[in-house]
Amino acid sequence: MATVTAVKNKRSSRSTIALKLLMALSGLIFIGYVLAHMYGNLKAFSGQEAFDSYAEHLRTIGEPLLPYSGLLWIIRIVLLVALAVHVYAAYTLWARAGKARTTKYAVTKRVNSTWSSKTMRWGGTALLLFIVFHILHFTLRVVTPGSNSDSPYERLVGSFEIWWVSAIYLVAMAALAMHLRHGTWSAAQTLGLTNTASARRNANLLGYLLAVVIAGGYSLIPVFVLAGVIS
Amino acid sequence: MAGSTLHDGSSPLNQAAKQTSDDAHGYYVAGEPLVDPVTPTGPIADRWTTRRFENRLVNPANRRKLDVIIVGTGLAGGAAAATLGEAGYNVKSFCYQDSPRRAHSIAAQGGINAAKNYKEDGDSVFRLFYDTVKGGDYRSRESNVYRLAEVSTNIIDQCVAQGVPFAREYGGLLDNRSFGGVQVSRTFYARGQTGQQLLLGAYQAMERQVAAGTVTQYTRHEMLELIVKDGVARGIVARDLVSGEIETHLADAVVLASGGYGNVFFLSTNAMGCNVTATWRAHRKGAYMANPCYTQIHPTCIPVSGEHQSKLTLMSESLRNDGRIWVPKKVEDCDKDPRDIPEEDRDYYLERIYPAFGNLVPRDIASRQAKNVCDEGRGVGPLVGDFRRGVYLDFTDAIERMGADVVKEKYDNLFDMYERITGENPYEVPMRIYPAVHYVMGGLWVDYHLQSNIPGLFVTGEANFSDHGANRLGASALMQGLADGYFVLPNTIRDYLADGPFEKITEDDEAVVEARRSVEKRVETFLSINGSRSADSYHRELGHIMWEYCGMERSEEGLRKAIDMIRELKKDFWTDLKVLGTADSLNQSLEKAGRVADFIELGELMCIDALNRRESCGGHFRAESQTEEGEALRHDEEFAYVAAWEFGGEDGSPVLHKEDLIYTAIEMKQRSYK
Amino acid sequence: MNLTLKIWRQQNPADKGGLKTYELGGVSEDMSFLEMLDVLNEQLNETGEEPVAFDHDCREGICGSCALMIDGQAHGPEVTTTCQLHMRSFKDGQTITIEPWRADAFPVIKDLVTDRSAFDRIIQAGGYISANTGSAPEANSVPAPRDKATRAFNVATCIGCGACVAACPNGSASLFLGAKITHLGELPQGQPERDGRVASMVAQHDAEGFGGCTNIGECTAACPKEIPLDVISQLNKDLRTAIRHGH
Fold it and tell me: What is the ipTM of this complex?
């Protein structure tokens, strides 16, 4: 009843593992980006002037070698490509996994799965929706709850003073924490960096660390705005 | 080898046996003496080299036109399939399992012997040869055994090159250990999973040939008949176990590498599927079955826990190095907690009877004495029926002497296995052990070329009889399987195939049609008896008879009784068997029925062989032939021969052909372990 | 013990199949799980219902034949093979659901029996070291570092049962694949074919329809031989190297 035959000369770059490698590499780009982004956000604690001039500074970096907003656009393009790759690989692998088991078990019992690993796909989808919302909100200024000031600081404070806006961001940060927790470990594993027990432990710890630092760091802003510390 | 001399192999050192007793009178017909037609001569060390040169070659261009069927994918079959495939023959490989990787060679634990002499401890090809002949109680063919010892070194080279992860020393070189009471360290091992690693090596080599197109593998296929045309083996009839289809496969030569028949005892350390069908069907088609009564019983197995038991599990014999074996002195203590039985009420019977060797006496002695004390009613463990089958293997002294940590380090995996199966913690309560059937030395008769008396039918590994005599040394089964598969068969089968290409045989040939029909009819019969008992229940009953009367100790009276009981059982089987399901689907009950039918017939022949051999040798102990101390007593002058049995027809008696065992390199000696 | 068994019955690959409930009494806690099924089958044979088909052979945990999903866990609640699982791991009166491995690459043949020949084809794709019989050099001419040989051995203990696939939410065979890649890749003899081996075996794995790995670790938890997750890391690393080398 064996119907599958031997495959010959298939490119390894088209394999499931290659897709995983793409996910891991694009994921690492996001980790780098969110760390830098968080650094900028925390400028909010230094007040409006510091925050706004930092935002402006991002647009003038590299001048005159680069045009105004040049670096920003380079980053945006890299991020868009990474996002496309990450999402494409994720949904392809998801579909593949679905086809790998079309008849489900009547009883399943997972013994080794963490919450974060189980929520990678739906959590990732939620993050994708959040990113769309976030761009509409702060970048394109299509959705502007609270404030549509030209000062980024005022928009930040104005919108986070609305409880449900803050709630959306806080929930998204929880999802990001989960995604980072498993994603960091998974990327290390996919890149073949976890060949010993200690390397595996370290990759897991790094996942927890990044999850706490990044999601925690971002969350400080809406929390402190709501608390009235940042205003 | 103190006191032993090797001779030059030029003149016989013993005379042909003349049997004077005739215990099996009336159960068999005396046949013509049998001579190995290709037996080599000359100095023993040169025989194989000379033969390899003399055997004809097959033109590489002709090889792909020659079809070879190999039944079984264990060490012997898998290695042969790989090697013949590499040589360019067109190989068809069959196994009943769902993958060749699951053949029962995989379960061998201890290791594999090879005369590498890496330890420089005095080992040599000669010594391995000598130990193997002696261990087999001088009932094997010396030329075959010498060849086995000779190619043993090539096996290790081959396996290492394939990536078998043998144990290594810190310097990265291969490690060896001493095994089974041998005084040299010549056993190569991969922790307790040597068989698995060797089998995976052979399997991978074979799969490589599947990919190369030289080997076609037929998994979930069971050989049910041999096709013989004009006295020559030309193919097999097999059942596709998934679709139920009866298929014929034709070839220029057939190799049976289908393993041993220890499951005739129902409970054994064999896998559930191990069976005699392939070799028994060949036997019924004319192949001689040699020394079927030679069975090896392993003393350290986990005892039976109840009537439901389906299988026995072996634990490494190394446990006897540190554990002390005992039973209560008094029958009334047998159901007590062993820790409450005071020292003076314990009988360390092996230490008592054999003070020099103590718990390290050879396998057969340890096994027989365990049976003796249990027969006296002093067995321990749960009552199965009305009998306790078990003796204590106690590590209390070892733990006191070496400390629990050292014991743990040495035996932890075995202790874990024991606890998983029995639910008892051997660090606290003494282990219980009991002997179990482990290996059979008997099998289809083959000549020096591993060819049976049917031209074109070759038999390798445990399925043949050739190398172990009446008993097998530890770590030699793996050696023989791989020797046959990698190095012997490929060099002997070519002499037969050199006569090819042979006249083609077609599907509509009378011999093919007849063989196929007989199988179809048999399958129909099993499904239509429609009685009341499952095949499994007959198997269980046969096993009880065999274990009781043809097990560790056999007597004239018991064997006669057993033969009668088996004949009754056979009649009942064919009238009251119940097999449900259909012929055209996966039907495990149907598979089982065919295997049990053949086991029943084999069981009878084993008893007749055991009855005829009124001597004790190796794994065969006749109560009538023992010293005053109860030790096995051989009768070389009567029984230094191979008993090769020819099928005597459905209602006829088997025909006994004797092949004399004449030694030219080693003199026979009686062993003593006192 | 008395048990309620819900067992997957399916007549043939085309049949839809379903769970059927059986009551079984007189089970002893010393029985192995498969012996318990033997008792059930003997009972079914008596009542005229066709016995339940299940794969099994050595019954000592090494051949890899037995393959049952027991209450949602591959090989049941203990870290061992189904044949080495004993009834003392269950309670009197318990209901136990028994299903076959579920993966489209392992189609059901009948009842609890599946076709795992995909694993053979993955090995055929490159899970070997090419060394024709007779061509081998002296065994000790190439020393193998002991730690590498030990790691090779540890992962070579894979029995090919398929529990990793059965337990994986993605139906991936990465643990099986990684174990063989790591075994052969750790040995000096395995080096010449290293890149080609991983490339071919991964391609065959994908062609068989197994899913991709998401590094969750259900496979290693279900593995009766406790093959560690690092073999998948090694697999990924070796494939990355192979891609770099042009595969």
Answer: 0.98
